[in-house]
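Lecture notes, continued. The same structure-token format from the folding unit now serves as the input rather than the output. Read the line below as a description of shape only.
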């Protein structure tokens, strides 16, 4: 009777290479022939590539794909991808990928100024690698005293969340006290400290520092699934950077739910926290306005939406102007690169407002304005401001 054990060693190894890594370890216990086949390192190279997208050990200290798979990828490969930091009010966007022989977690932070054209900045959180003796080395990369030990633990049943815990929290505290620690944090937050920083802005940042400080040494991260491209929508879903007055630039996620376009915060603030809806628009209420109808905020407020819905005759472009008395939060940065005197579409929508601590939340009327695939705005009628949102162009692969 024919048996799989009668196959040539190379063919047996080829067939076994299609098994998952965890199954390969079990198969190696069946018999000597299976163990010899599974010991071929190229099989584990295939598992590293197919299961985790790691094609080469260039830059890594380990020279064995099996060691790399069993000690690194099997235990920590699940953290590759995009995560949301579970930080009270503020949240956070984190990307975990391979960089120069390390698994590195980078927090992606928007620039503090209202220029949403600026790319996200990277702040390293932790790294995972193997040392010269193939021992796992997990290091916290935050704090004032350089890299130090850290623990990564899966907390979700489907590995959809994990916790990073610093083993030496004292290395995150400044030797000169909390006051100097705040000044150092402020310098990093703003790239450089402005002596003319408005007292109100400084107070907002002081609040952020005090709330987020405990999460420096222990933080939970939850898996994020970025939306796929879809057809027949005014703008493709995905991540955008948006302007929020004194709270600066925040990251939001655009998604679609039936006839609604929804904008949800990925990073937030004590008024509208991360994970909460900030803007929602009705795709059945596409408006077409003349320049005259946009000249003042009062004219926009007096519009009867039913009278300006375009129906089946919506033009590809329509005029756009910022009404008198409405503050522009960053659209002027696009004057040279885009035609901001026209928009592709305009919809009636609502924005969420709330007091500090997400208290007494309410919906405020406004207009969602689509300029192109990388830029949209929301005109808050009640607040008399235009928030601007620019697509995040960071590569997450």
């Amino acid at each position: 009777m024919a048996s799989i054990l009668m196959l040539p060693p190379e063919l047996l190894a080829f067939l076994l290479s299609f098994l998952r890594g965890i199954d390969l370890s079990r198969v190696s216990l069946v018999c000597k022939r299976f163990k010899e086949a599974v010991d071929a390192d190229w099989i584990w190279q295939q598992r590293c590539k197919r299961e985790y997208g790691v094609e080469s050990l260039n830059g890594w200290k380990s020279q064995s794909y099996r060691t790399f798979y069993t000690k690194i990828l099997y235990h920590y490969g699940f953290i590759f991808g995009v995560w949301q930091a579970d930080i009270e009010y503020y949240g956070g966007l984190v990307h975990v990928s391979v960089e120069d022989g390390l698994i590195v977690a980078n927090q992606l932070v928007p620039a503090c100024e209202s220029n949403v054209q600026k790319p996200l900045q990277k702040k390293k959180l932790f790294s995972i690698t193997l040392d010269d003796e193939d021992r796992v080395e997990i290091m916290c990369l935050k704090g004032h005293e350089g890299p130090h030990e850290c623990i990564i633990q899966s907390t979700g049943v489907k590995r959809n969340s994990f916790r990073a815990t610093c083993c030496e929290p004292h290395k995150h505290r400044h030797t000169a006290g909390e006051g100097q620690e705040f000044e150092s944090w402020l310098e990093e937050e703003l790239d450089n400290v402005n002596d003319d920083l408005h007292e109100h802005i400084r107070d907002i940042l002081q609040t952020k520092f005090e709330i987020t400080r405990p999460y420096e040494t222990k933080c939970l991260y939850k898996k994020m699934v970025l939306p796929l491209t879809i057809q027949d929508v005014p703008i493709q879903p995905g991540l955008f950077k948006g302007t929020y007055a004194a709270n600066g630039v925040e990251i939001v996620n655009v998604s679609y739910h039936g006839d609604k376009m929804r904008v949800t915060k990925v990073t937030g603030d004590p008024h509208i926290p991360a994970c909460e809806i900030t803007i929602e628009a009705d795709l059945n209420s596409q408006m077409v306005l003349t320049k005259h109808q946009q000249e003042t905020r009062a004219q926009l407020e007096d519009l009867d939406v039913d009278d300006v819905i375009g129906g089946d005759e919506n033009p590809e472009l329509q005029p756009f102007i910022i009404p008198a008395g409405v503050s522009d939060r960053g659209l002027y940065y696009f004057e040279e690169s885009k035609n901001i005197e026209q928009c592709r579409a305009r919809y009636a929508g609502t924005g969420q407002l709330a007091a500090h601590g997400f208290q007494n939340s309410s919906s405020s009327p406004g207009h969602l304005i689509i300029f192109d695939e990388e830029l949209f705005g929301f005109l808050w009628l009640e607040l008399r401001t235009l928030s601007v949102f620019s697509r995040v162009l960071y590569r997450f692969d």
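Point for the exam: Residues 10 and 344 are 60 Å apart (CA to CA).
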